[in-house]
Amino acid sequence: MDKLKILLVTGEVAIEHDYRDINKNLLKLIESTGRFDVRVTEAFKGSTIETLRDYDAVFLNYDGKELPSDKVYKRWGETTEAAFFQYISEGGGVAIYHSSVWLDESLPDMFKKLWGIYLTNQSGARRMPKGDFIMKVMAESPITEGLEKEIFIVNDDLFAGVSQHPEAQVEVLAAVYDEIDNYRVPGFPPPHHPVVMPGGKLENLPGVNTDQPVCWTNRYGEGRVFAHSLGHDMDTLRRIPYMVMLLRGLEWAATGKVTLGPPDRTGQNRLSKWPYYGGVGK
């Protein structure tokens, strides 16, 4: 089976993320399956449709801002944005990783329609202060097949207060309950990340006390969109259920099918180090 060619687009990621370290580990994880061949660019601006047609899918680790409070979202430029949306609409795939699910209200509607579910500062989106929580699998899908229904996540970001585009063809694969009591802590909302809170009341936070999507698929034209908003650090990347969802989602975005199972941890393979795929010595 030929390897799927993936373009990892990065370079402008919020300052609290060590994005080059995360990209290094993402590259190691993705290629350890033997299913993918990944190239990384921090200079996506200027890319054309001919560039993108060399790849089976794009993997986005790109925020557009150094700080959530920045006023300007750094866009890719007219040529590259047109190429990106043409590529997806004609049948390409995209995987949207962690804080890349954040958009800016200034972006054209086509961004929000392609993302399907997204977050903006202007709509009351936020990071829940508590970093440990349960991710619940919400749908039977080739991406979630065989996974536990409840997966404990440690030291990650729950991005809550999501918005959904009315024309999106979204299937929510996993969600986390956004408990209001988790906001009753000193320092919320944080000064570096302003939060719209109508009337200054926690109970008016958009989506509070509901299941907030963290993993979903969407369709854009003939193309496939996969998104997972978790993945802040290695604590999550090392979790086998999470890595299985992420890798299957990327494969689905690239091909529309899923062939990847969980890593084989039986026999001598139990001795293999992270990322667990490939077996001992590979």
Molecular structure report:
This protein is an alpha/beta fold and 282 residues long. The protein is 20% helix and 22% strand. The chain contains six helices and 13 strands. It is globular. The mean pLDDT is 94.
Tally of individual helices: 6
Q: How many distinct beta strands? A: 13
What is the radius of gyration? 18 Å
Percentage of residues in DSSP E strands: 15-25%
Structure classification? alpha/beta
What's the rounded overall pLDDT mean? 94
Give the % helix: 10-25%
Distance between the termini: 18 Å
What are the secondary-structure elements, in order, as H or E? EHEHEHEHEEEEEEEEEHH
Strand numbers in spatial order across the main sheet: 2-1-3-4-13-12-11-7-8
Note poorly predicted spans: none
How would the blueprint of this fold be written?
Blueprint: E1 4-9, H1 19-32, E2 36-41, H2 49-52, E3 57-60, H3 78-89, E4 93-97, H4 109-115, E5 117-118, E6 126-127, E7 133-137, E8 150-153, E9 159-160, E10 163-164, E11 171-177, E12 211-220, E13 223-228, H5 234-237, H6 240-255
Parallel strand pairs: 1-2, 1-3, 3-4, 4-13
Antiparallel strand pairs: 5-10, 6-9, 7-8, 7-11, 11-12, 12-13
